[in-house]
Amino acid sequence: MAYTEEELKKELETKEYEYGFYTDIESDTFPIGLSEEIVIAISKKKEEPEWMTLWRLEAFRIWKKMEEPEWANVHYDKPDFQAISYYSAPKSADPNKSLDDVDPDLLEMYRKLGISVDEQKKLQNVAVDIVVDSVSVATTFKKTLAEKGIIFMPISEAIQEHPELVKKYMGTVVPKTDNFYAALNSAVFTDGSFCYIPKGVRCPMELSTYFRINQANTGQFERTLLIADEDSYVSYLEGCTAPSRDENQLHAAVVELIALDGAEIKYSTVQNWFPGGKDGKGGVFNFVTKRALCEKNAKVSWTQVETGSAVTWKYPSCILKGDNSIGEFYSIAVTNNYQQADTGTKMIHIGKNTRSTIISKGVSAGKSQNSYRGLVQINSRADNARNFSQCDSLLMGNECGAHTFPYIEVKNKTAQVEHEATTSKIGEDQIFYCNQRGISTEKAIALIVNGFSKEVLNKLPMEFAIEAQKLLEISLEGSVG
Amino acid sequence: MLKIKDLHASVEGKEILRGINLEVKAGEVHAIMGPNGSGKSTLASVIAGKEEFEVTQGSVELYGEDLEEVSPEGRAHKGLFLSFQYPIEIPGVSVTNFIKTAINESRKANGLEDMPAKDMLKMIREKSELLEIDRKFLSRSLNEGFSGGEKKRNEVFQMAMLEPKVAILDETDSGLDIDALRIVANGVNKLKSKDNAVILITHYQRLLEYIVPDFVHVLHNGKIVKSGGKDLALQLEEKGYDWLKQETAV
Amino acid sequence: MDLKDKLISSFIAFENNVDVEHPIHDVRMAAIKNFEAKGFPSKKEEAWKYTSLNSLQKVDFSIFPKQENTLEYKDVKRYFLHEIDSYKIVFVDGIYSSFLSETTHDGVDICLMSSALTKPMYKQVIDVYFNKIASKDESLTTLNTAFSREGAYIYIPKNKMPKKPIEILHFSTGNEASLMLQPRNLVVVEENAEVQIIERHQSLTSNEVLTNAVTEIYAAKSAIVDFYKIQNDVATASLIDNTYIDQKDKSVVRLHTFSFGGKMTRNNLNFYQNGEYIDSTMKGVTILGEKQHVDHHTLVHHIEPNCESHQDYKGIYGDSSTGVFNGKIIVDKIAQKTNAFQKNNNILISDKASINSKPQLEIFADDVKCSHGCTIGQLDEDAMFYLRSRGIPEKEARALLMYAFANNVLATVRIPELKKRINKLIAKKLGVNLGFDL
Ligand SMILES: Nc1ncnc2c1ncn2[C@@H]1O[C@H](COP(=O)(O)OP(=O)(O)OP(=O)(O)O)[C@@H](O)[C@H]1O
Ligand SMILES: [Mg+2]
Predict the structure, then answer these.
(1) Helices (H) and strands (E) in chain C, counts
(2) N or C end of chain B: which has fewer CB within 10 A?
(3) pTM of the model
(4) What residue in B sits closest to A441 (Cα-Cα)?
């Protein structure tokens, strides 16, 4: 896997990784099904130390006793966990792709995106880790980062090279027992990114991970562990893509963030997994557990642009344990056709003077269902906690649904919590006004939706904001009739 | 260039325009006056292609082409501009972003490339100076929280940017303070040429002192009941509409 | 024997006292079957996440009072809105007290459920309305249905309005060590008719009482219903109040809930808008102390287009009290042009008090205006400062502001004497000396 930055750049230029092309690469795939043997085999394949193998096995045993959750406002045929292959690695690190069997619709979409990922620009100031199916194939800028003492590498390597850090932090924010998918991930995760920012260091560039699912019938279970030591800063971005397939693919990731005293983490996601066809066939099941632990004076912001996946189940959360810590959640979720999204956040206020902000924008079109589900919990010792939440939904057409399920639990009299939610539609007069200025209805809708989402888009790093805007536009295409 | 023939239009089965005839030639300024509810804004909306109104009879032609089948944005691409009596708010979309989109969509429809960012910025600078608009204003959300006068000025700014062939200004003067009225009127005058035309919908003679019309029409009950030169506006200012209503009732 | 088993075996005894040939009895049978299958709801159920019935189920409640008890009017006068004249339907330990009541059949029927369920002259109304909107699935509602026998029956024919408001009072005397009551009310307001109803549950001793009430309200076209629930019971009285409201075109229903007392109160308020141009209003003031617990559960189902709903719930929680607000708005696909608004504002005034709020919107129509807002906070410090700078001591200033916070919900109370009463109750609860007459 000798992969140079130069090569990667070239590859990205030719749009190798652009979204979900299925790459016809020879890969090393495990037989389908899940058992203790498979868990051990994954661990062996990765040449993991024994403690890791045992950790996985324990998770597997926990998972076996758990049931798939049903409380979310989503309906789908439960994946058959015995029909999935839990390990698939490309044999060659240079995925040569044939464009022949790519859905022309998809090609058209990419064409419209332009050089959507705008890799060129990104490569100048972004370090990228790319995870295809199950393994990490390239991490760029390792050297530059190493000079600052920053560790940014595939988690499989981190297990080998920095076992003390992995051992100390993995599973502390999202325990193996946390939920069904987190337990599954803990047992079978195959790769993901590991990042450590030392004390007082400001990471000089955006760190970024690209995920894609390539092989059919493989699940992707990546695990991200990000530790920002005292007074450090990092901005991290993940992008997700998958080829379009008729069958559903499973993605069950776990992301753990640890922000130690005074540290700040900005974590941005542009999620564009294959959403399924117009008829609702196929698409990725995106069941993700993301959580951050904030120590004293630490700050974590989650920003997400969710346009993909057939089913999304995802609640990036903050445990505001330290005094004066801050949690933020900015989200745009767009659903179209038969997509279903149940997403939101949990802000758990434990420390004093903790603050959280939640801005959630949902756009539903087609026959989709879009739910915001959030929890704001102010514990009894969290004096002077503050929360502000704003959830706005935009409905397009009369066959979709928008739902808001906020839970607010307050046990401290000094808390100030404010929650607002609105639901509305795009006004016909707004569209006519745009039409009159020469803007087509489709474009007008994109413009209005972008305006609606602006507070969230503004939180993204510049170049991704532009990409995200284009994504919003594309995912709503054909939603006006 | 714009020809309206026996135009009838209704909304929810209620007839509002009852046979309008009007021809506007290049280089002309027309003023349309008339009491509240007489159908002035409706006429403007119908010309711009608002689907809410059903054209039951007659036609609107631009450069000899019947607009019936042309979408509102298609009409805009052909050079039709309507300054709204009540401009719409679009939260989160800045004036600059909006106008950039509008210009490039029109260019695309006319087979042109996007306007280079440099030219765009230059044009924005020129036109905002012409209309004495603070640049900060242009990064605010379109019409959101704008004062009445600001909205109107912003409409004229967009007109300046889009350089239309036929511009209909629906009560663009109302809500403007005295200085703003002068600035806007000067702007309109500067934009006027022998190749384009302006239709002013107004209630006040005041505006017509700045932008001198070639023709004044009075709309009443969905019909043009009187047309004349700029003096007609003076006459109306003095006597109101009653004498006309009586005259036409006979 | 736990309470569920006791209730199921009591049903057999209950059957000895009612006409089992009567068609209503099939309804009761189906209901007890549902309760038997479901039992009491547990905290595992989403709708009961914040309210536990566990400790109540351990109490050995009598299901039927062993003797008939009487009360003197002078002893209970203060629980009536005695400043004005009213119709009164009064129950003592679940049994109708003709002595304390004032019913009528003069143009309207304001009387007893027991007669309505048995006498042929009411059959037509009972057939059309009884247990039609009440849930046949929710376990506590079906438990009530199974034992439904007594309660208030109010029928207002077309274009009629009773001469005076109606008071429904449920007293418990404490002659039983612990008593469970299951009143069942039916209110039918026909086209263009109007009615005002005040309902109150009052325990007179510190013996344990559990009331599981069901009220069905039908508001026909253009009907107007004002319903006021006063919940200011003693610390050993628990109430589960299930109210179902069916509204037709252009009807207006305003329901106010004043929760100032009791041990555990659960309000399940369900509005179904089966028509157009309907207005539904739900307002609540909750002021709690000690270990009291109140759970407001509202549902507004917008089924048809062009309707409105307004919810405004205010809560002040002291001591170790807990409050729950769970408000759900559903807008069906065809219910275009719906305006649905919901507000829930809370103030915590003690270190041990807590509040759980869960406003929910489920929207399937696009041309709607829906919003909800929820706040949990303290009194406005600027307002505090303003009052204190005018010489009002901090404690009084605080009380006054809380009073103002709770009080603005009362604007829609249409019986002036009642408004005055509630005002006084709020002032007393907050320890405010109003110093002026309201
Ligand atoms: N969408 C509509 N539905 C019903 N009636 C309409 C609609 N739009 C306009 N009308 C009616 O058509 C008539 C003409 O309205 P219009 O806005 O064209 O008047 P106007 O001449 O511009 O008046 P003003 O001077 O007050 O601006 C009015 O009676 C108005 O109420
Ligand atoms: Mg007008």
Answers:
(1) 10, 20
(2) C
(3) 0.83
(4) B73
Task: Choose the mutation target among C44, C376, C379, C398 for the interface with A, i.e. most A CBs under 10 Å.
Answer: C376
Residues of B in contact with A433 (CB under 8 A): 84, 87-88, 90
Task: Give domain status of residue C311, yes or no.
Answer: no
Domain boundary among C255, C274, C293: C274
pLDDT at C433: 65
B170 Cα to the center of ligand 2, angstroms? 7
CB contact under 8 A, A393 and C363: yes
Give SS3 for C155: strand
CA dist., res. C40 & res. C58, Å (int): 12
In a mutational test of the pocket of ligand 1, which residue from B33, B42, B170 has the highest number of ligand atoms less than 8 Å from its CB?
B42
The answer for residues whose C-beta is within 8 angstroms of residue C413's C-beta and 6 or more apart is: C228, C256, C419, C422
Is there a contact between B29 and B194 (Cβ–Cβ < 8 Å)? no
Nearest Cα of chain A lies from the Cα of C143 at a distance, in angstroms, of 26
Cα separation, C429 vs C258, in Å, equals 12
Domain count, chain A: 1
Residue B139's alpha-carbon distances to A64, A157, B124, B133, C79, in angstroms, are: 55, 47, 12, 12, 63
How far does residue B11's CA lie from ligand 1's centre (Å)? 10
Residue pair C360/C327 in contact by the 8 Å Cβ criterion: yes
CA of residue B48 to ligand 2 center, whole Å: 14
- Do C200 and C185 meet the contact criterion of CB atoms below 8 Å apart? no
Domain that holds residue A300: 5-476
A417/C377 Cβ within 8 A? yes
Instruction: Indicate which atom in ligand 1 lies nearest the CA of residue B35.
Output: 25
3-state secondary structure A430-464: HHHHHHHCCCCHHHHHHHHHHHHCHHHHCCCCHHH
- Residue B139's domain comprises 2-249
Lining residues, ligand 1, CB within 6 Å:
B 11-12, 14, 16, 34, 36-42, 52, 85
Q: Do A460 and A268 touch, CB atoms closer than 8 A? A: yes
C9 belongs to a structural domain:
yes
As for how many domains chain B has, the answer is 1
Nearest to A447 among B73, B84, B93 (CB): B93
**Best CA proximity match to A169, nearest among A228, A248, A222:** A228
Q: What's C429's DSSP letter?
A: H
Strands B2-11 and B14-24: antiparallel
Judge B/A contact: 3 or more CB pairs < 8 A.
yes
Q: How confident is the model at residue A115 (pLDDT cuts 50, 70, 90)?
A: very low
Residues C210-257 have pLDDT tens digits of 999 999 999 999 999 999 999 999 999 999 999 999 999 999 999 999
**Type of residue numbered A93:** A
Residue C330 lies in a domain: no
- Tell me which chain A residues have a C-beta less than 8 angstroms from the C-beta of C362: 401, 403-404
- 8 Å CB contact between A188 and A56: yes
Closest CA to ligand 1's atom 18: B39
Q: CB of A422 within 8 Å of any CB in chain C?
A: yes
Q: Is there a contact between C368 and A412 if contact means CB atoms under 8 Å apart?
A: no
**Between the CA of residue C18 and those of A189, C112, C124, C148, what are the distances in Å?**
65, 15, 20, 10
CA nearest A400 in C: which residue? C364
**For the domain that residue B73 is a member of, what is the CATH number?**
3.40.50.300
Q: What domain range is C143 assigned to? A: 3-274
Distance to chain C for A135, nearest Cα, Å: 40
Q: How many domains does the structure of chain C reveal?
A: 2
Tens of pLDDT, residues A248-294: 778 888 999 999 999 999 999 888 777 777 777 778 888 899 999 99
Rounded to 10 degrees, the C-alpha dihedral B53/B55/B61/B67 comes to 70
Q: Establish if A55 belongs to a structural domain.
A: yes
